[in-house]
Amino acid sequence: MSDNLLSGLEKLGLDVSGMDNLFAEEKKEPVKQEETAAPVDNTPKETEFLLEKSIRCPMCEKVFKTKNIKSARARRLGADPDLRPRYEYVDPTKYDVDSCPFCGYTAISRFFPGENLTSIQRKALQEGVCAKLTKYINEAPALPETYTYDEAVERYKLALFNAMVKNAKTSEKAYTCLKISWLMRGKAEELEAAENKDEAAIAAARAEENKFYEQAYDGMTKALSTENTPICGMDQSTVEYLLAQMAFKLKKYTESSRLVANILVSQTAGNNVKNKARDLKDELVNAIRAGK
Ligand SMILES: [Zn+2]
Fold first, then answer.
1. Which member of 105, 238, 244, 287 lies 3.0 to 4.6 Å from 100 by CB, making a disulfide possible if both were Cys?
2. Ligand 1 mean position to 148 CA, how many Å?
3. Ligand 1 centroid to residue 126 C-alpha, Å
4. Which residues lie below 8 Å from residue 17, measured CB to CB, with a gap of 6+?
5. From ligand 1's centre to the CA of 232, what distance in Å?
6. Plot region of 18 (φ>0 → left; ψ -120 to 50 → alpha; else → beta)
7. CA of 103 to the centre of ligand 1 (A)
8. How confident is the model at residue 33 (pLDDT cuts 50, 70, 90)?
9. CA 70 to ligand 1 centroid distance, Å
10. pLDDT digits (tens, 9 = 90+) for 60-87
11. Which Pfam family is one of this chain's hits (predicted)?
């Protein structure tokens, strides 16, 4: 994807996909040879799964457009063990931040609406974000057709900055870090699937993934002991399961085992999460035996 000679021009709103063959016009016109013509690439484009929605910024009251996933069209394939959603042809995590182009107020979509903001937070955002980032423009710039992983990460980092300025709940900050980590995983996977692998870029993406993952794990652990559930829309056992999977990935087997045990004896956990916890328990036993 990034091998396209014209990559970078997407920022200007130009569709350069399929324009990577610079010398295509030198080919002779095909003379009615449909049978031997190269197969057309019918792979759907990411843009086909996105729609633009107008929302009002609760800080500056201006209306702007934001990209969302067409949930009726995009097909969910499942999730990574740590609940990162996987869809066919599009990574929904890239499109889960709303960012006002006029004043800089930015948050993960579920935290964006004004009813989440206290007057103290509004004041902090006004001083710490809007006063610094307000752009005196009449019209919002056009959105790119799709976001690259780097563009998406930039939006999430601005969301994290906003979360810090408004002194958001620990869970909001941890969840934002978790999603940045998922994006870096997506970026690494995209780089790994490329024909010419850029090993340095892959290693850098994986290092960023781990850095944000550890922050997310520490924050979510703290949130579970200090906040009421639901946390970021997840009930108690779902958060415990998420943390158990994260601890497992971070090789914190003692913590992971403790969380799994909690879920298995819980009176309120559903069968689905209990079954998944049992599977994780088996994986833990194997990993500990293997001394990994
Ligand atoms: Zn605004």
1. 105
2. 23
3. 10
4. 4, 45
5. 23
6. left
7. 4
8. low
9. 24
10. 999 999 999 998 899 999 999 999 999 9
11. DUF2225
**Residue 159 host element (H or E):** helix 149-165
Count of CB atoms within 10 A of residue 168's CB? 21
> Do 149 and 209 meet the contact criterion of CB atoms below 8 Å apart?
no
Instruction: Please tell me the distance between residue 106's alpha carbon and the centre of ligand 1 in angstroms.
Output: 8
Identity of residue 279: D
Instruction: Report the helix count and the strand count for the chain, using DSSP H and E.
Output: 8, 6
Residue-wise DSSP of 77-103: EEE-TT--EEESS--GGGG-EEE-TTT
Please, which pLDDT band fits residue 137 given cuts at 50, 70 and 90? confident
| Cα 152 to ligand 1 centroid, rounded to whole Å | 19
Matching residue, tokens 């890239």: 94
Taking the centre of ligand 1 as the mean of its atom positions, its distance from the CA of residue 129, in whole angstroms, is 10
Please give the average per-residue pLDDT across 197-218, as a whole number.
97
Query: Are 108 and 167 within 8 A, CB to CB?
Result: no
Question: What per-residue confidence (pLDDT) applies to 23?
Answer: 46
Terminal CA-to-CA distance of the chain, rounded, Å? Answer: 35
Give 117's pLDDT tier (boundaries 50, 70, 90): very high
Q: CA–CA separation, 94 vs 101, rounded Å?
A: 17
> How far apart are the CA of 168 and the centre of ligand 1, in A?
18
Distance from the alpha carbon of residue 219 to the mean position of ligand 1, in angstroms:
28
pLDDT of residue 40: 82
